[in-house]
Every structure is written in C-alpha cells, then in structure tokens.
Amino acid sequence: MKNNLPLLRTLFVQFPKHEFIDEPPALPPCDAFENAPSLRMLCLKRPSCDFNVPFSQLTDLEIYGALGAEYVLRCCQDASNLAFLCVGIGAPPSQPSTIDTNVCHLVNLKFLQLDEGYFVHSPEGLVSGPCQLRPLLEKLNCPILEELTLSNMTCHDSFKLPAKSHAMLEDSIISFVGRSPLITQLTIDIRLKYDKKLVSLFERLPALEQLEIRHIGIIFTAFCERLIYHPESAAPFCPRLRVLDVGHLHGLQSPPALVKMVASRWHVVEGGPVARLEKLVMNCEDEECASQLRQLADEGLDLELSTGKPNRESKRKRDPQVEEDVGCRSQ
After folding, report:
1. For the chain, domain boundaries
2. 3-state DSSP call for residue 331?
3. CB distance 128 to 119 below 8 Å
4. pLDDT band of 26, cuts 50, 70, 90
5. Residue 169 — φ and ψ, nearest 5°?
6. 20 to each of 24, 38, 248, 307, how far by Cα in Å?
7. Residue 42 burial (CB < 10 Å; 0-12/13-18/19+)?
8. How high does pLDDT run on average in the chain?
9. What are the start and end residues of every segment in region (Disordered) (predicted)?
10. Which of 60, 116, 294, 302 is 20 to 30 A from 329 (CA-CA)?
C-alpha cells in the first residue's frame, strides 16, 4: 500500500480501544500513508500513536479523542495549509498542563473547533485532568480565522476547574482572540463570567457578526452596556454584530440594560457604522422588559424569547465517560 496512493484524497483512521480488548488488532505501519500526494482531508479517531501523513498538504484535519494538547500540536506543526481544524481532546490527570513546543502558525485556517471533555474515575469520584484548551490556545496562531467554537465540559457546574486554572483559561481565550481579529462567528460553551474582565474579550472582536453562548450563567450589566450604540459617541465593541444567541439558560443582572442595548442595535441606519441586530435568542424573566423586546419583534426583529426562570436541569448532559465523538464537526 505504501507509495501506491496517488488518488487518495480523504482518509479516516479509527484506532482501537485498547482498554476493552485483550489483543488489539495490528495497526498499519505508521508511514503507510506518508506518500499520498492527493491527500487533503484526514480524520483520526482515538489516536494512540504518531501517524505519519503529509500534514503540509492537508486542508481539513479532524482529531477526536486526542489524549492531550501535545499530540494535537505535533500534528499541526507542519500543517500550514489547513483551512479547517476540528479537535476533540481529553487528558488524564497525569497529563502535563504546560507544553514545551513551538507555536503553530496556521496562516490559512478559517474554521477552528476545540472541544475538551475527558473524565476519569478516582476515589473522590469523577475528576478532570489539567485544562488542555489553554495550551492549545496559547500555541495556535490563526491570523485569518473566521469561525471559532470553544467547549470545555470541565467548566460546567458538575466539574469545575480550580479558580486559578479558570482565570488562566480566560486569559488564554482573550489573548487568542486578540491574535485573530477577523473572527465573524464565535460559539462558546465554557462557563465564563461576562463581567468587566471578559468585556475585553469582545473588544478584540471588531468583525464579529454572530455570537452564541451555550452554557448556563449570568449576563452582567457591563457586558450589555458596552454593546449599547450611542450615535453621538464612538462605536461600541462588536459593531458588526447581527446575531446574539445566549440561549435560554442565562439570567440577566439588569434586564433594562439588555433591552436598551437591543433597541440601540435595532434602530440604526442601514450602512452606518453599526450593523443592525437581526436576531436575538435569550431568556428574560422581567415581564416588562420581555414585552418591550416583543415590540421590537413586531417591528421585524427575529426574536426567540423565553420568560421563565432559566432551567439548569434542561442543560444537555453529556456522558462523563470518555466521549468518543467529543469535537464532532459543527453543522
């Protein structure tokens, strides 16, 4: 098979679950696909060893069940032509959280999805290993990135990162976004506090058009206030924002501030410095504010509004075992 793959364009390799079988099947030689001049798309599932492929040729790379950020970074070192990268990553507690490797310059990458979700059993119950999103965000340089999705199960209610690790993850996200000023779509499933510190995240997103927040939390007043458009003042952050989707799992520190922000983004002049907010998905318990939002919907705003108390039990629950398909490609 080696040196005889001139037409191979897409390759999917699924590694066996070693812990569930007595004699794992033999894998093909690690260099079996080394010479595949047409290869452009590669998907690795549960990779358990290095696999030599012409990474420099790839435009699409998907890795599911990767045990640690270091493996992913090794794969990306020579993958400068990637346009699409989707990673589902996990790490046992012994995995180092600091990785000594070079920065990966993915200068053609336009889509990036990073999902972390791996738990192991211990005498104390289910625990998570060191955060692996942080070293990935610190080592990836994606200057023309347009779509970014970040997910971390360990930041949800049941499995919380230590406070110091959580703060470092927030800083890494802010720094990464600052190096990717062309992001137009951002999806976050990481429990962050949208207070004054995280306002700086959105100050670094001048091209953002669509924001989706999937986790449970509270939208702080400072976040809404910095999105308010005052025609007589400088443009607010995220001036191109057209879709704001915070789901139905968030509470509001100040519903009136949210309504003021939405109204300021709806009543704008077409072609002006700030784009019109076209769609809003959220929960609002304040009936008066909900009524004001419905009035905007009557004017044409695409509104998906729930008015009950955010139901934490409705948050989708994931299997706390190692998830085979963590990081599946967004549709």
Report:
1. 216-314
2. coil
3. yes
4. low
5. -65, -45
6. 9, 35, 39, 47
7. buried
8. 79
9. 302-331
10. 302
Q: pTM of the full predicted structure? A: 0.84
Q: Which residues contact 328 (CB under 8 A, 6 or more apart)?
A: 64, 86, 88
Q: Which residue has the tokens 């390759």?
A: 11
- The rounded Cα 59 to chain-centroid distance in angstroms is 19
Model confidence pLDDT, tens digit, residues 92-119: 545 555 566 789 999 999 999 999 875 4
* pLDDT tier for residue 1 given thresholds of 50, 70 and 90: low
Which residue's entry shows tokens 């976040």? 223
Strand spans (E) along 5-48? 10-14, 41-45
3-state secondary structure (DSSP) of residue 168: helix
Residue type, 200: S
Sign of the CA dihedral 170, 175, 181, 183? negative
Output the pLDDT for position 327: 36
pLDDT of 157 reads 46
| DSSP labels, 135-166 | HHHHHEE-TT--EEEEEEGGGSTTSPPPHHHH
Helix 196-203, helix 163-178: angle, nearest 10? 20
pLDDT reported for residue 7: 87
Separation of alpha carbons 171 and 164, rounded Å: 11
CB atoms inside a 10 Å sphere around CB 164: 8
pLDDT value of position 272: 87
What secondary structure letter does DSSP report for 108? T
Q: Which of residues 327 and 36 earns the better pLDDT score?
A: 36
Give the burial class of 49: count Cβ atoms within 10 A of its Cβ; 0-12 exposed, 13-18 middle, 19 or more buried.
exposed
Helix ranges (DSSP H) in the chain: 69-76, 133-139, 163-178, 196-203, 221-227, 255-266, 287-299
CA distance 48 to 304: 44
Give the Cα separation of 150 and 242 in Å (integer).
20
